[in-house]
């Protein structure tokens, strides 16, 4: 089993200390989101296999110049290769999630950049580093039933087909970020939670392939396998580049708790380390190298609360919950887990208010941002209006945050404001001042 080591946090230990923590987890692989030299040096003379990454913004430059590719490899691979087990070189990360004209050009430059990087490695006589790119499940246009899996029409022929040709020719892997949590949480009434957590005896039989599934992850993996097969590449091997389950989140995020996170990851590990290998119904008995997301909670990531709560370890090296990456420890050997309290959708009103300890200068900027957007977002806190009193930065910011979120939640707006805001079920309204809210109906 592998672990993803992201570093978007201001409270994380040093790379050398982090590598010591990773050793205590007995991870066999580590995936980085860059090629940080301090981390690569800390991994020297360990038996941990390493994946490094070219940032998205360099893809187009590398695609247009072999010299740029050579320089990247010379700087980020060659100094470490003799002592650190670099085994995967990933070009970009989930680039198909972005849709501007510049992003689309990056899509079309991807495979050429990968070829140039591969050529650079060959120039240095490096044959044992596989070149790939991690993609998310949004590469699929259809995913259900699994046999109906097909790539998005905008990328299938112009990008995915040459990508698969490259991976097939170089005997590399299709790196996939796959999260049953997101699929289940979007439709918890139709998808059974135990099925997403590898629990219970529920099964699903694909009406076309007649393959029977016992868990949601296998369904998702096979939908990608069927999509690859439709393009003529049935045998390109999979790597799960990211998977996991959040152990906390916002009030409106169902099922993000320690019980579910521990259950998912423990069962995932047992499945992926089983001997003989389990594979999937479409590829039984095939090993699927797997990286759990993530080593730490990353408190500087934006977006919903779950984004900051995927870690297996706290910054001091203590576990958020116990796991055994070898998959040998029996379930009854772990400490008991806290009961899940949010496995059903919250019903009622939620407000977005200032978090404890918020910086006043940052609050002023956040109010300005919130009040610029939407319709009459901050009219109620103008002088003489119903929410002007109390004349307090925190009170005005809480109103602005709630008003903004009430307007923009449906279109992807979050109650975060770079860590300045939190959700609450306690109504902050006072007297004639009524704070806007988000109402969840379950």
Automatic annotation (TrEMBL):
Primary site of residence: membrane
GO molecular function, one term: glucan endo-1,3-beta-D-glucosidase activity
GO biological process: carbohydrate metabolic process
Keywords for this protein: Cell membrane, Disulfide bond, Glycoprotein, Glycosidase, GPI-anchor, Hydrolase, Lipoprotein, Membrane, Signal
Organism per entry: Nelumbo nucifera
Catalytic activity reported: Hydrolysis of (1->3)-beta-D-glucosidic linkages in (1->3)-beta-D-glucans
Segments forming domain X8: 350-435
PANTHER family: GLUCAN ENDO-1,3-BETA-GLUCOSIDASE BG1-RELATED-RELATED
Membrane-related topology note: Lipid-anchor; GPI-anchor
Family statement: Belongs to the glycosyl hydrolase 17 family.
InterPro entries attached to this UniProt entry: GH (IPR017853), Glyco_hydro_17 (IPR000490), Glyco_hydro_17_plant (IPR044965), X8 (IPR012946)
EC number: 3.2.1.39
UniProt enzyme class: hydrolase
Pfam families in UniProt: Glyco_hydro_17 (PF00332), X8 (PF07983)
GO cellular component, one term: plasmodesma
Subcellular location: Cell membrane
KW Membrane (keyword) present: yes
Protein name as it appears in the record: glucan endo-1,3-beta-D-glucosidase
């Amino acid at each position: 089993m592998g672990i993803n080591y992201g570093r978007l946090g201001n409270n994380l230990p040093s790379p050398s200390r982090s590598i010591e923590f990773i050793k205590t987890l007995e991870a066999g692989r580590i995936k980085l989101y860059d090629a940080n030299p301090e981390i690569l040096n800390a991994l020297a003379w360990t038996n941990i296999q390493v994946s490094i990454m070219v940032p998205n913004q360099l893809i187009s430059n590398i695609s247009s110049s072999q010299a740029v590719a050579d320089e990247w490899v010379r700087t980020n691979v060659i100094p470490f290769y003799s002592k650190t087990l670099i085994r995967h070189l990933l070009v970009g990360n989930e680039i198909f999630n972005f849709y501007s004209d510049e992003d689309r050009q990056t899509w079309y430059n991807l495979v050429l950049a990968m070829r140039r990087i591969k050529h650079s490695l060959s120039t240095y006589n490096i044959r044992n580093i596989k070149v790939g790119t991690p993609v998310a499940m949004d590469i699929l246009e259809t995913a259900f039933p699994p046999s109906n899996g097909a790539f998005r029409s905008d990328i299938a022929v112009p990008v995915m087909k040459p990508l698969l040709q490259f991976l097939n020719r170089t005997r590399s892997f299709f790196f996939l970020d796959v999260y049953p949590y997101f699929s289940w949480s979007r439709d918890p009434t139709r998808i059974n939670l135990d099925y997403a957590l590898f629990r219970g005896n529920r099964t699903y039989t694909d009406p076309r392939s007649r393959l029977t599934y016992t868990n949601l992850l296998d369904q998702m993996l096979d939908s990608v396998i069927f999509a690859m097969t439709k393009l003529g590449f049935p045998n390109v091997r999979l790597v799960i580049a990211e998977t996991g389950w959040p152990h906390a989140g916002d009030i409106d995020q169902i099922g993000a708790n320690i019980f579910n996170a521990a259950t998912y990851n423990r069962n995932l590990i047992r499945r992926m380390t089983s001997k003989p290998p389990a594979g999937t119904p479409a590829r039984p008995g095939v090993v699927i190298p797997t990286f759990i997301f993530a080593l730490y909670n990353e408190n500087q990531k934006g977006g919903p609360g779950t984004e900051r709560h995927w870690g297996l370890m706290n910054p001091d090296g203590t576990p958020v919950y116990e796991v055994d990456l070898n998959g040998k420890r029996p379930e009854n050997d772990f400490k008991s887990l806290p009961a899940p309290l949010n496995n059903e959708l919250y019903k009622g009103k939620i407000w977005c208010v200032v978090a404890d300890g918020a910086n006043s200068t940052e609050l002023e900027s956040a109010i300005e941002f919130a009040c610029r957007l939407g319709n009459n977002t901050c009219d109620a806190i103008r002088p003489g209006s119903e929410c002007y009193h109390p004349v307090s930065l925190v009170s005005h910011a809480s109103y602005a945050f709630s008003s903004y979120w009430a307007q923009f939640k449906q279109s992807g707006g979050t109650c975060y404001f770079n860590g300045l805001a939190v959700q609450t079920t306690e109504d902050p309204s006072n007297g004639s001042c009524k704070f806007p809210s988000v109402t969840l109906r379950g």
